[in-house]
């Protein structure tokens, strides 16, 4: 009995002290994932680690014959967000423990990174999970070990705070750093991006309105941008900013670009496919097929802008090789037709706006009037309860059989002019053959 | 035919001789069928493209393959309609060359007068409907509305079908204009057929002579009085319907 109490007490102490330990650790540390990784021994302070790793010249042999530099710059860690918030070495290097360390084997320098990278999820579980859906994780799964992992972008010991706590967005000071970060691998794209209206505004004036890489590609769950699905969904990416009135007003850019695109040939089809068959391959252009992907230029760029007729023609010819000089104006260029812009379209629209209510409306009125007059006549007849004359072979036959709703005067006066049944039967024009000629005669 | 008359017992039944006139020739009836089918197929494959925001149309246009199919069917129906139009116009030109084109489909001053009289009749300002010849003004409206409607559809449709070729000659702006005209005129034509044509041939009275080719004597007398008189040779002085 006393033993049981003792065990319970010990357990309680361990649990409480464990809870205290974690509650004392600052920041957004998440308890998730702690079960899968060893609990750090916080008794080992950074000084203990740095007594060795703070000294240059220590290396560790790797499988490929190269060596791993074991030196850690103490100031670098101190200046990092982790260092500033008081995280200890062992909170990431949880399984290293006291010296001598447990055995560690890595094929090469990259293997070291990949082995150590998993520890990030101990605190940053959500972000780590997102990366699992990314094109980088996909490449990694295909054996492309150069694909980016956490520390490739964030670094290992010099991790910086990049996020504005309030907005959840990247800090303004960080925005120019983002493309540089991606450029470590994607340097050719970066060079392209710098020439674009977005990239140049970012690097030259740190313009807060232009997108960096992550505004289009996402942060941790970066999609494969070469898929059909990405293509079909891509207009939404551009539309995020380009339909935002406040942002566009500063630059005098129309916010109708998406609606006019969707209203025209190409966008109509793309919008339907995006909804109905998001993985479908289509040859219909999306925004970047005409405006460029990373080297997007201002439409009114005097040299490369699409306002320059020749440039637009070249763009059209990518898909319409037979297109000639007049062809590009077949595209409304995101304009809403007006008497100035695309007057022909405007006037066709005006014509139908006039025609539909007047002509079709007029016809509808006539039809309704005709139906109501019939109804009125019928109801009047019912009221008068006139005896039926249907069977009588009355001379005004038109009225009797077919036009029971006709006003009695209708055909009668003319028929009375001598329209005897005999007269009709004499002629008997009832035959298909003779009818052919009679019709044309 | 004579069976029912036996039922009447004592008195001699009033035997009614059903006579009819030929209203439409076989080729005209065929033309109507072709026009009807092409019209329906074109609408069925065209309207989803116009009403692309609706879920039913998006079901139809869901994949690139389906869109390609719909467009192919639309183009085939368009070719059928073009052939029909060519036949119709060719026949008219041929008859015109032989100076034997019937004039009863041409719009005359009388049609405007008839329309006015019809409005007066519908407003109870007149007791009688205007009398007409082979085609009354409503039927002429139907013919010419469809005539010009098909014209707009064919011209705009061909512009949309061959934009690269068209823009060698015409400015690019005709293409969006054709697109707007094509999609709007289609709806105008569909509404027109439903409210005007269907009313006159199905609701006002059932008039199936475009399918049977025939019109009964009563209908002929009632609705095409002048034509009836012309064919039966009655009262030649009366025929103001033949004016053109």
Describe the structure.
The complex is a heterodimer of chains A (441) and B (244). Chain A has 441 residues and is an all-alpha fold. Chain A has helices spanning 2-24, 46-53, 74-79, 81-84, 89-92, 109-117, 125-132, 135-141, 150-154, 177-183, 187-195, 197-205, 213-217, 228-242, 245-249, 257-263, 265-276, 287-291, 309-317, 343-384, 397-402, 412-415, 421-427, 432-440, and strands spanning 59-61, 67-69. In chain A, strands 1-2 form a two-stranded antiparallel ribbon. The longest helix of chain A has 42 residues, at 343-384. Chain B is mainly alpha-helical. Chain B has helices spanning 3-7, 26-50, 55-60, 64-97, 109-122, 137-161, 163-169, 174-203, 209-212, 217-223, 225-232; strands spanning 20-22, 214-216. Chain B has a two-stranded antiparallel sheet. Chain B is elongated and about 70 Å long. The interface between A and B is large, with 80 and 79 residues.
Structural domains of chain A: how many: 4
Radius of gyration of chain A: 41 Å
Class by alpha and beta content of chain A: mainly alpha
Q: What gross morphology of chain A would you assign?
A: elongated
Examine the coordinates and then state which fold CATH places here, giving the name of the CATH topology of the domain at 21-101 and 137-223 in chain B: Fumarate Reductase Cytochrome B subunit
Round the mean pLDDT of chain B to the nearest integer and report it. Answer: 86
Low-pLDDT residue intervals, each spanning 5 or more residues of chain A: 18-35, 390-441
Order of helices and strands of chain A: HHEEHHHHHHHHHHHHHHHHHHHHHH
Indicate the overall shape of chain B.
Answer: elongated
- Low-confidence segments of chain B, given as residue ranges, are 1-8, 236-244
What is the CATH homologous superfamily assignment of the domain at 21-101 and 137-223 in chain B?
Transmembrane di-heme cytochromes, Chain C
Protein chain pair with the most extensive contact, residues per chain: A-B, 80 and 79 residues
């Amino acid at each position: 009995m006393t033993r049981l109490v003792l065990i319970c007490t010990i357990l309680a102490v361990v649990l409480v002290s464990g809870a205290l330990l974690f509650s004392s650790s600052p920041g957004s540390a998440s308890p998730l994932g702690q079960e899968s990784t060893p609990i750090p021994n916080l008794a080992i302070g950074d000084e203990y680690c740095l007594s060795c790793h703070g000294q240059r010249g220590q290396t560790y042999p790797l499988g490929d014959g190269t060596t791993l530099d074991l030196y850690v710059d103490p100031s670098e860690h101190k200046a990092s967000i982790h260092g500033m918030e008081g995280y200890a070495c062992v909170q990431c290097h949880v399984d290293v423990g006291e010296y001598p360390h447990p055995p560690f084997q890595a094929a090469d320098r990259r293997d070291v990174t990949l082995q150590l990278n998993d520890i990030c999820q101990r605190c940053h579980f959500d972000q780590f999970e997102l990366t699992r859906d990314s094109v980088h994780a996909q490449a990694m799964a295909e054996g492309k070990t150069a694909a980016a992992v956490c520390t490739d972008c964030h670094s290992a010991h010099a991790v910086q705070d990049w996020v504005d706590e309030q907005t959840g967005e990247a800090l303004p000071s960080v925005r120019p750093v983002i493309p540089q970060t991606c450029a470590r691998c994607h340097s050719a794209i970066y060079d392209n991006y710098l020439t674009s209206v977005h990239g140049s505004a970012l690097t030259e004036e740190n313009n807060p309105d232009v997108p960096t890489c992550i505004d289009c590609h996402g942060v941790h769950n970066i999609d494969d941008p070469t898929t059909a699905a990405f293509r079909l969904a891509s207009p939404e990416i551009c539309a995020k900013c380009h339909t935002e009135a406040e942002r566009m007003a500063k630059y005098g850019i129309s916010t109708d670009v998406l609606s006019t695109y969707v209203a025209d040939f190409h966008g109509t089809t793309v919008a339907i496919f995006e909804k109905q068959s998001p993985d479908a391959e289509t040859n219909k252009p999306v925004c970047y097929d005409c405006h460029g992907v990373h080297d997007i230029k201002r439409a009114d760029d005097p040299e490369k802008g699409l306002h320059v007729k020749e440039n637009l023609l070249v763009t059209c010819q990518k898909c319409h090789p037979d297109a000639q000089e007049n062809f590009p104006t077949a595209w409304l260029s995101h304009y809403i037709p007006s008497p100035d812009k695309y007057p022909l379209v405007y006037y066709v629209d005006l014509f139908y706006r006039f025609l539909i209510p007047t002509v079709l409306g007029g016809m509808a009125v006539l039809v309704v009037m005709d139906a109501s007059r019939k109804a009125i006549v019928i109801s009047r007849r019912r009221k008068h309860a006139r005896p039926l004359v249907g069977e009588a072979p009355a001379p005004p036959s038109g009225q009797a059989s077919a036009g029971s709703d006709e006003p009695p005067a209708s055909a009668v006066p003319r028929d009375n002019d001598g329209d005897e049944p005999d007269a009709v039967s004499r002629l008997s024009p009832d035959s298909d053959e003779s009818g052919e000629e009679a019709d044309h005669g | 035919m004579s069976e029912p008359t036996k039922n009447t017992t004592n008195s001699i039944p009033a035997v009614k001789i059903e006579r009819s006139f030929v209203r439409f020739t076989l080729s005209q009836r065929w033309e109507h069928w072709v026009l009807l089918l092409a019209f329906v197929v074109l609408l069925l494959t065209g309207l989803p493209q116009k009403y692309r925001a609706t879920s039913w149309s998006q079901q139809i246009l869901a994949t690139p393959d389906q869109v390609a199919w719909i467009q192919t069917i639309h183009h085939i129906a368009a070719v059928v309609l073009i052939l029909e139009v060519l036949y119709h116009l060719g026949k008219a030109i041929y008859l015109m060359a032989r100076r034997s084109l019937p004039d009863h489909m041409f719009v005359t001053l009388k049609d405007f007068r008839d329309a006015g009289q019809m409005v007066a009749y519908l407003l109870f300002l007149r007791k009688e409907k205007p009398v007409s010849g082979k085609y009354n003004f409503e039927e002429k409206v139907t013919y010419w509305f469809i005539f010009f409607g098909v014209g707009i559809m064919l011209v705009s449709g061909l512009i949309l079908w061959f934009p690269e070729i068209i823009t060698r000659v015409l400015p690019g702006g005709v293409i969006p204009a054709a697109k707007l005209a094509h999609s709007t005129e289609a709806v105008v034509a569909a509404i027109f057929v439903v409210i005007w044509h269907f009313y006159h041939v199905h609701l006002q009275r059932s008039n199936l002579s475009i399918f049977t080719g025939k019109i009964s004597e009563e209908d002929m007398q009632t609705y095409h009085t002048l034509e009836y008189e012309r064919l039966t040779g009655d009262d030649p002085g009366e025929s103001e319907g033949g004016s053109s």
